[in-house]
Structures
1.
Amino acid sequence: MLTIIINKDYGEGMTLHRAAFAIFSSSLLVVAGCSATEQGDGSEAPTSDQAAVPAVVEGPSVVVTTTILGSVVGDILTCAVGSDASMTVVMPIGADPHDFQPSSEQVAAMSTAELVVANGLFLEQGLVSVLENLETDGVNVLHVAELLDPLPFADEHADDEHADEAEGERAHGDFDPHFWLDMERMALAAELVGAELASATGVSDYAGCGAGVATEIRSAEAEVIATLQAVPEESRILVTDHDAFGYFANRYDFHVAGVVIPGGSTLADPSSRELAELVEVIERENVPAIFANTATSSDVVTSLAAEIGRDIQVVPLFEGSLGGPGSGAEDYTSMMVLNASLIADALTD
């Protein structure tokens, strides 16, 4: 679990994301700029003379489930003049949100928060009952994806003999939770979070900060769109590790030809029939790359690529988590710009 205090005391050149997403703690509230701490990826955080302090803070507390939402919420919090809010990001960098299980300490942090910002639509499968119980107890939980005109999962088997099987694979929900891969939806999410923070904390600046962060996201999206324009129309075909790129394809004019793991989650197991059908799709469409996920094992994807019988790239993308220091995906907009570059490079070689 990552915990920071939002303040205005960052050293020169240190952004929120370098300060916030480089520091992990399961039992201490860590002030931005604290002593070196080991990361989930084995690297170390920046250091300073400021030491960790006990988990006692003043001001409103905000808990965010995923690192990607944490990037955006953190920007909003640091924007507000005079804010003394604390933010806790429950999942560490590199965690698969579908597979993450919270600790009792993390649940306790959520239970005392002024606002819990969750993705929703069953993305955080290990947190579903926790969030339901928190709401029953009166905790303010904002399920962001549900408010952004969510897309239904594409049901490729709706009219064939595998319809019941497809329904079972998606028993966790009919709507796609991966909205952040559409940057316009994430900009709208920033506005929603800003407005909710203003209401929950009484700090009116948060609403304007949400709008400001949304503008920054839209500016970065222009770079993403320009990068993706290099991909010819006939090459805008995606094969991905799981069904996560529906919003991306819808927003940026791509076609998802197939997925390795069915059902919209990383927790299912593909059958031999499904893998054989996917190989046929890859061959028929002459797909040059399969896009894997940095937050999960790529063994199945790599094995599938080896079955193709020709050179095919396996390209890891940042899907459900930010990257660690030096990854190029340390914050949300950088992650999207990097993913766009990786996709464009793989489909235009």
2.
Amino acid sequence: MINIVRATIKDLNGLTELFEAYRRFYNKSSDFNAAMDFLRLRIENEESVIFLAVEENEGYCGFTQLYPLFSSTRMKRLWLLNDLYVLEPFRGKGISRKLIEAAKKLCVDTNACSLILETAKTNEIGNNLYPGAGFVLDEEHNFYSWDTPQ
């Protein structure tokens, strides 16, 4: 049975292992200590909300991390679903949907106006998952980014 729980500092080690697997999935080099520090700060400073999928006999098997933003035109908080990851042996079991439902509940509970996310056009799984979970693809707006020089 899968339970979805909000991560606390007590979950830091297991969460960091998941986070590192997620980062490796995106071809980032592993740095467990830096990842742990990053997550610790997000939790301690309440800069993000992280939900964990926990399987009774197996432990941590997935997570989602959300960051608060604000909409000036709607004058309300909105949430950015920035990270969603499920370990490979647990995929196809509805865990991503459970994590998304926890994110939606957070939006309702915090009186937020929206839950937004971005995924690559090549992410076939995500591009099938998100519409099925009630997300609507915004084809009207351009998305731009600017990265600081390295």
